[in-house]
Amino acid sequence: MSSARKAFVPRTILLLSEDPTVAEQIEQALATYCLSHHIEWHTDIAAFQQSLIGARLQAGSAAHVDLFMVAHTDNEERTRETLFDLKRLKRWKLVPTVVLLKQCNPAFVRTLYHFGANTVIRYPLHFDALQQLINTMDAYWFDTVTLPYPDDD
Fold first, then answer.
1. What digits encode the pLDDT tens for the residues 4-32?
2. Residue 105 burial (C-beta neighbours within 10 Å; 0-12, 13-18, 19+)
């Protein structure tokens, strides 16, 4: 019996980061493994919510997000606020959230898990390490874990 990987299913990943370089690196890492997920990048949750208003007016339906990535890599306060804002809204509470940090202060990491982070990862210093990290995250979150189905809320 062969262990073939499941057919690729494109997912929607919302990346929240103020750093366009981080967004570009994550998109390049996904492309390296031919992971053609839809990445939507916004600087913060307010910009994302504003885009939803525009999308709802144009398409008549709300966006579906499969995974949040919060990458305010050098700003602990901004990271905490973003995670708090995401998890206080019922609509986004069940969506898995991965937080990327350059420094992993153990007390701060505990706070992030308390606020609803599903995974906290040190942001790699080298691009090849980021590529491997993205491939591993993809396999875990989209092939191994059963994600919640979207509500009608």
1. 456 667 788 899 999 998 888 888 888 87
2. exposed
